[in-house]
Amino acid sequence: MSEMFDAVDALVASRSALPSAEERKRLRVAHGLTLDDVAGALKVRRATVSAWESTKKPTEPRGPEREAYARLLKQLAELYPAPVPATFTGTPAPAEARPLSTGAASEAAVMTAPENTQTPAPAPVAAVPAATPRPASTTRPTSSTSRRPGAKKAAPAGTPAGEIDPRFENGPLAVVDVEDGKVLAYCTGGLVLDVPAKSLPSLVEWTLKEAKLGQPKLSGPGRPADPLLVLTEAACERYGLPVSLTAEEKDAGRIPEGHKVVKQLVRAEWKLTKRGFGPWARIYRPAKGSDRQCVQLCIPSWNALDPRFWDHAAQLPPAELARVLGTYASRVMTPRGSTAVTGLELMTALHPPTHAVRDEETGSLRQADTKTPGSLGSDPVDCAPPEAPNGHPVLNALNLPRFHVRGPSEMLFEEAYDWARPMTDTECILRYLVGLDVNMAFAAGANGLNVGLGEPTHVKAPTFDPKLPGSWLVDLSHVDLSRVKAGKEWVELDGSLLPSPFTPKGDRPTGPAWYATPTVAYAQELGYDVAPTEAWVRYENGRYLDGWYGRLRDAYLATMADLGVDADLAPADFLTAMDGYKDRDPELTIVVSAIKATVKGGLGKLRERPRGEGWRPGERWRALERPTWRPDIRAAVISRTRINLHRKIVKHAAFTGQYPIAILSDCVVYAASGPSPLDFLPYREGKPLPGGFKLGINPGLVKHEGTQTVLWGEEVREKFNAPELNLARSIKDGTVTDVDNGE
């Protein structure tokens, strides 16, 4: 009888009800799970899970997989109920709150470069028409009045596509200014609120209780973004803050704890983070349950908006500044500090370390005992010794001599290219030097990259596995660039005109050295055997940066589309669209720069060094206490980015016989007979060389960086007596002020 019951149970389970394919995907993404995570748990292929979620023609799981899949989806549905559509009275949902259906969004999902064969579904990004302000909200703060002056192209609030969260109906942030004695808060979409607060503590209270500022969470297990207030110089004066910092305060990064405004906050039982009251101050009270009380301040006159990354944003009028920061917030996230800090915070927001689970005894939600799948968790992990920068405490156990300088066989040196060579006689008789720049190169390098999520494991005499993230000690000096595989075919090249793919300076290795997985895998791809002698590998791994890449890619493509550079332009049309694009809307150009800085800065933060703090070599520093202090992830991204570029260079050389004369990070310079990239890139009937350089705005494709004459190049090298001066550093505007020092 029991066998019959089991058979009946199996029949029922084989028909377990499943939600729609769209809902299946929503639940998986809400919990931060990748397709690989689900496939591994259910013991099926990644493609199978993808087919179950296909909105065009989904397949249905069968047998025990269906029962397990249904169980997973049921538990996720309890944690992440389907959102209730918002009800509107009067004005319909604005266009900018609807999902992108054509143009940049559709193109963003298609990567044509060979290193980007799989593109993850992008995180929701609101479509932001550059010139369309958000219609006025039907609900207003009870003790404030609001109005909409003719603000220039104000950006809408950054709510997820198709939804408006009533808690944050006035957008993610406001620029607070004083005009004619009145305090005004310039929000996104042209909205202006009257601010009744007379002191900074009351301004914080008003922000949390009445302003309706903030941003919905980016991931199911995450939390909403805190409201951001940007204080102009006039607002600083009104609330008792200095307009600028003294030299001593700049060095400290904050105003003194004894400042009268800090004392006001303390009396009102508000707290500051350990960094104190600086350009990006966080004012909070300890959370009670899910009730979080926190407001962030941005003070441009204290250099919060560093002009290296935000250009002239700090000098913009309040409405225009609200537009710039609001557009960035809606497409990336509400700024949490510098672009570097925000880049790092975006990683965590998309993969929160913890999540809620339902307590089986009480039925209530509580924090899970384990970290969220696919995240880095809440606890920091130490890097492997070869991955550690000098002065890191893990090196103490090695008992190195005091002034010992570690070499490649002791330390991982995965950095971007800085390489140049003298021009050949053939190149000298050509007329031009043309620079190509890889769009969002490091973001493209992060796309689809498998990285470690946990602690490293030391392995002796390992067998190299290109799918296993880690650092490998291996001798690659035998790789001969004069004969390599380009795809499936062996090709003969002039190896003396190529940089080595294994070192940042392009020098051929002379013996064993530490390399990240993508570098060693490329040696195999070129047709050579590898035999590591030891390694530090991470068996817990995943594509941690996929969502991060997707959101930044979409932000970049949407903003460039607003500037008239679409992702589907023909090569000549693309070059025309890029010519002068910055002049079409200087404010949106600031957003583009900030997005790029978010990529590079976020990756740089993964290996942040001590910043004062009274640190001494061998001691821990503050950044080491972050789960996101991961030099191995940074090294893997840089390794893959450098390899991606070298692969294109090899393809181009094999097909055209042309070799680069200089490379700096993501810029490569060629000698050419004409001033345009189309004068030397091998397009045939509008189609690029497969695996080579392709003109376009997508990450991983290239744009024109600049053109100078060969005569210019020879003259500056002769002037500084530097035949290998890196001309990629100055190809954009031709300005060379000093001997190349690598900075």
From TrEMBL:
Residues 87-166, 355-378 are annotated as: Disordered. Residues 364-375 have a biased composition (Polar residues). It comes from the Bacteria. Keywords: DNA-binding, Transcription, Transcription regulation. Residues 25-54 form the HTH cro/C1-type domain. InterPro entries: Cro/C1-type_HTH (IPR001387), HTH-type_reg/antitoxin (IPR052359), Lambda_DNA-bd_dom_sf (IPR010982). This is Helix-turn-helix transcriptional regulator. CDD domains: HTH_XRE. GO terms for molecular function: DNA binding. It comes from Streptomyces halstedii. Residues 124-162 have a biased composition (Low complexity).
